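Researcher: Here's my situation. A collaborator sent me these components and asked whether they could plausibly form a single complex. I don't have experimental data yet, so a predicted model of the whole assembly would be a useful starting point for our discussion.
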Amino acid sequence: MSVRRLICSLGFLVFSGLFLSNILGCSGQKGSSKPTITVWHWMTDREPAFKELAGWYEAKYGVKVNFDLYAPSDAYLQKVRAAAQGANLPDIFGILGEKRDFASFIKAGYILDLTPYMQENSNAWKDSFFSKALAVNEFNLGDSYGVKPGIYGAPIDIMTIQMVYNKSLFKQLGLNPNRPPQTFAEFLEIGKKIKEAKLQGLVSGWGEIWMIDCLANNYAFNIMGKDKVIATIKGEVPYTDPDWIKVLSLFKEMQESGILAYGLVTMVNKTAEQLFANERAVFAFNGSWCVNVYKGMNPRLDYAAFLPPKVSDKYPMAIWGGAGSSFMVSARSKNKEEAVKFLRWPTERDQQAYLAQATNNLPANKESLDQIASVLQSFAKAMDSATHPRIWGVSEFSPVIEALDKGIQSIIIGEKTPKQVAEQVQRIKERELAKKR
Amino acid sequence: MKSGLYYKAKKIIVNTLIHIFLLTVSATCIFPLLWMVSSSLKTQETIFKDISLIPKTFHFENYYFAWIEGGFGRNFLNSIFYTVAVVLGIIIISSMAAYAFSRFKFPGRNILFIMFMAAMMIPIPGAFVPLYILLNKLGLRNTALGYILCMINVGLSTSIFLLKTFFDKMPKELEDAARIDGCSKIGIWRHVALPLSKPVLAVVVVLNALIVWNEYVLALIIFDSKPLMPLQVALMTFQGEFVTKYPLLMAGLTITALPIIIVYILMQKYIVKGVTQGAVVG
């Protein structure tokens, strides 16, 4: 037999083996008296911690829990949508995307209303969460979504978007490393020192414009209050209002003081994270997920989070925050009760503390805070100041948001004045309102 | 009158410029691969600090961790199996279909061919949900057979188009000779058309092998069982929403790129021939 023939035969044998094992070898589950809970998720960084929790749960209650990871998140989203249409959703799963996507799943009858479970034992489960963490999963009477009021998901972690500062660089600048700037004026003063020391100031993913929107909204809440911001979205207050021009002017002031890093308007968040982690920037505007990112890039980085320095004392400073990731129970699951029982378990105090320690994410359970790292605590403490467009009940037109964010970019690069941007945004707002009418 | 020296100098300058251009193009192609290999030997921390191509310390253990953490063993075999099965399926079906489109006259031939070509225009992600529901109804969801059939379908249009273009140009006299020798229609396809279309088949093999080898979204949607997943899905486990394990991802990428590079090297002769002989004309 020639060598070629021998190789071909071997190849054929291997291929046939694989063919038989793949095509014929079904992976059906073996019968068991206790149900198996299946959880679908997309969180690669939390997979080992979830598996650990599943092992503990099985040891304690004898119920097997399978955490199935499907990453990346956009493919996961498609899988969940397809599975819903094919009636193949697992017992527990997460929904990514806008709140209206979440609402469409509820309206189609795919998601179980958790309100009765949350209200058991005098709201014990409900009250264990940060109220704002629960808000993302809550639908209220009068919402534009047309969903029966209730709580349809349980958050397993939360996030806030704040400023962080490098303590070592603060010392280098002759500043107190335990006292971040409290007011906008102090913040701008530091900008001058940064300029003199030829360091980079504030870095952020402002090339991905939603982060500009986030900071602009923070200051809008601080300068004019929530009601006026909501009134603007409703079209009752124009963007040319002096308060909005003041918000836009802050970005001009930041640019002039030297607090903004070079190339900030086109910077993606990954670059910003790299610069801050490698101690090349004094400040960063980032979400609490950065704790995990910075740990990977530079475990010795000494930093802390703080609220964006306030401009006005009239209204409190608000930051974007709320539920990070949430899980929902399938309304069509055969194991609904077991699934709810399990979902409650990882949201309890000790399990939440374990998840926070293992994954560096903020716990959704407010009783777990004393068991987590100080830098995470500094992010979590600001949860009282958290808000999010998802819970405002109204949403701004996308072209208006885009015009505002791009306008801020033009202000930073000196292309337009705050007044010009405000006028342009207002024109687009009026156009969109006219279209709607 | 220009001297011989002038033409010699001109030739040297032109050749040098051409070679500089080609070297630059080669460098831009090779650099990402080198960066991938280099990063696969660094740590998560040094990947952002040490930008040199040769790491100060080599962390070969990344390959071990990538293999274990990603569960590459089974997924690697799955990818080989899916790629071989799909490419074989495409070669058999598309070569027969292309031969039929090229040589046989039957009612609705042109409309059918146009329909196949139109299928090339449909973006695959747009078909995910209908495909999922169809496979679910046929009981083929979460089976290797279901995935293989879908992937064969993905590669058919382009392959039929490439092969038909080739068969259209093939001299009919060769087939007449085979017919005189007693060959049936299937015999002509098997003994004349297929051997002659080797260069185009090489292009079809490489194109489709690349598509199947790199595919992960459809696999992720139709498979629920981890043991059925291909290699690329395992690779995605290193890429998080906010945190990416770059050294493991790069080590995983190096492992996944190797087989396809080997396929390309083995088929290089035919691919170049296929392209230069006008196999992809059209």
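Model: Some features of this prediction you could bring to your collaborator: Chain A touches chain B through 40 residues (CB under 8 Å). Chain A has a mean pLDDT of 90.
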